[in-house]
Queue: 2 jobs
Job 1
Amino acid sequence: ERDFAPGTTIAKLTKWATHEAKLGKEEAEEHVLQIAGTRNQPSKTAHLGTLATTGCAVAFELVRKQLVQG
């Protein structure tokens, strides 16, 4: 658990999360943040303050991007 300012973008938070998970650059690019318990993956430009719910908090999971296969 970590506190971030409401103006923090998903892009910045994703960079922090992939660093904390010790993912290499290529592997980090294959991951996105998803709101915990949902399939909602906010855009990289979204600000945390727009996603927070009760108690001004939001929880994320770092998940592998779903790759579209033709």
Note: The first helix runs from residue 10 to 20.
Job 2
Amino acid sequence: IDQVSRVDGLVLLAALRTQGCIASAIVLATNPTMRTRAQAAAAGATLVEKPLLGDELTRALRAALDAQETA
């Protein structure tokens, strides 16, 4: 979900979780607030901060794919 849509991605993720969705989730955020961090953690999502420096996104994607394979 991007900034153009009128849907808050973390709210949507929380709703999916309450419906039993256990898929891996990665949240990309610029200067995330403590609330954003807490919401991502509560939803079991990995938070990756922008700007993307290094290989943090790659590591998060690999971890998500590994989790899918072991599930």
Note: Helices lie at 9-18, 34-42, 56-70.
